[in-house]
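seq as requested:
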Amino acid sequence: MKKKVFIFFPDGVGLRNFAFTNFKDIGEKMGFDITYWNNTIFSLKDTLGFKELKIEDHSAHKLLPLYSRARKRVELNISRDKFNDDVYPTYKFPFNYKGFKNSFKSIYTKWLIGLYGSEKGVIKLRQKINKLERSTSKYKYCKAQLEAHKPDLIFCTTQRATQSISALLAAKDLGIPTVAFVYSWDNVPKAMQVVETDYYCVWSDLMKDQVLQYYPFVNENQVFVTGTPQFEPHYDTSLKQTKKAFFIEYNLDIDKKYICFSGDDETTSPLDQYYLEDLANAVRSLNSKSYNLGIIYRKCPVDFTSRYDGVIEANKDIITVLNPIWQQVGKQWNHVLPTPEDFKMFYNVCEHSEFVTNVCSSTVFDFVAHNKPCIYYNYEQPQLKKGIRDIGQNYKYVHFRSMPSDKAVVFCTDKKDLEGLVKQILDGELSNVKACKEWYKIVVGKTPTKASETIWKGIDKLLK
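struct tokens:
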């Protein structure tokens, strides 16, 4: 009899990895009965024809956001003290004291931090969060669904969504094994492990070590190194278009060489538009010296600002906008969801660009999968003023310490150097690809093409 596995989407961030890759096909070929337990507003049945069970009750305890924020801050404080490292407070978002309601929330959260501000305290805080979520109608709703459908295992596609807590508690209370996938390369040090499951899938040995380092309640045999399906599409050559076909489809000039500027969200890089402007100026200067260059601007899918518009308009002879093919199905950032068509576009942007530039984005790994270099901007903009976040702090984060050397990317530390760095890469005199492939192996794991298969093998082992 086939084992019934629920693939649980608490929010839309896991769709790209677990709905639009070959993950489902691989699981079905291995003999699993797969149902998508879907907490998003995106219908997998209507759009992809997948078997799904929708969660219609989205209630959470009204105190959950406050307790969750306190939990994160306490964990970051513990890491700061345990590792004697001031990087951890930089992961915190500031408290909001605008208006009575925000002030009350901030004061209450600070009280919780004081009350539970120790390693024993954070365990009690997690227990309190679980107690709150067990009292919700969603917990009862999810428990009833699980009792009716009787899955053998639940695979949660991200560890960081508070919307998953009540559903996974219901599974735990029914004795159903649970597995959580650690979603992103920077999540563990940032105290973003919201859920407690029986097992965890992580990208690499590095990430496994981090889970065990930051969460003493997790045992080594609970963590499986599987890789991530995130990069698998870059090895699917069926997505590849000829350069001519790609350029015709997106109205690119076949005689130009294109540099990709990969945009960031406003929190990570609030002055990102000025880096695009700097690249445009460098390209314009090089074009006056017999180069024939253009820029592909691909925005961050969850950036809804108009901050780039002026730069794009002023440089429309150079910049071509190729926005990600994502679908906005709601008003929140995690209601903008990827589509399968975006895989093909992004594959060919990586394949047919000369290299990528950005501020500290993981697109460095997407491009190195296509043997393409990357420039990271790492200098202040003159528009930086009090209240605007300096992008320099990004490179101090723990996940960047995994770089095997400073040559894993091409760092541009001065605006005046940008044109020269671009020229050197184009002329074949400068590349970070070799060193970046070592970094890629450290972060993504040794078998980036086998992640989906490895996850299913892990599930199979657990069920046996």
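The chain is about 40% helix and 15% strand.
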